[in-house]
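User: My collaborator sent over this chain with a note saying "see what the structure looks like." That's all I know about it. Can you take a look?
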Amino acid sequence: MKTALFDITTAQTPCAAPVVEAGGELPDWIHIVPVGIFRGHPSGDFQVDGSVLAALLDNFQRDQIKLVLDLDHQTIRAPNNGMPAPAMGWFDQLEVRPDGLWAHVEMFTEKGAALLLAKEYRYISPVLCWWREDRVTGQMRGAWVHSVALCNRPWFASELVPPMAASDVDVRAIVATALAERDQQAAQAAQGSQVTVLVDQLVAEGRVTPAQRAQAVTLANANPDAFRAVFQQAPPVVPLQAVTRPQTSAPLNPAEAAVCAQLGLTPEQFHKFNNQTTGGQ
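Assistant: Without extra context I'll predict from the sequence alone. Here is the result:
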């Protein structure tokens, strides 16, 4: 198994099947990633199974951008050779089938269609990146399809071993399970974010003290009903140190006036001193 980040691996479709068959019509769907164990690639041996297909599909759906069909892998070569990397076509959907990953052709460009129909280019080769870091969470997201290329010399594995007893049900079940786990994790993350916002709001309202915040978040995630009973229904709790007596300029009573006379204080000074000494008691 590979450990390098962005390790590029290109693999041909089974038997390097031409994109345009004898009938001369451009296809709507193209088989871009086969299942199997591939040996002899310069980057090392690799395997494409149900879990890899699930990651490829998941990352494509997360990115929400279309997959480019270029010429001779120019998309990955452009940073080094400085040449343009125009699209020969675009894929807008990926689909898992028993024999691997298929891509739906949204369109071929005029140049891409002409090259295929004239049989100047006959084959395709995907670029698979085995490890990818999520830009937001920093977590590794598994395999993804970087791009697909028209080419005439697709990499031909020295050995291609078909998966044992790989059926439509087997592959689709693995992919469905992986995607269900992804959706569950996303829902849990969304719930956690909502809980944090709610607890912070209750802290601001005085229903949860800062010392209780961590406990409230844990309880809200584990038992929402108990959280509502304990915290959301609780009356606001105002810390005593936050209680201050309002400033006042009311007339002094006889006792207060006598104190001011003895201490040489004005009524304003008396009220200010009285607020400072009694407000936090």
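A starting point for your reply to your collaborator: Residues 8-163 form one domain.
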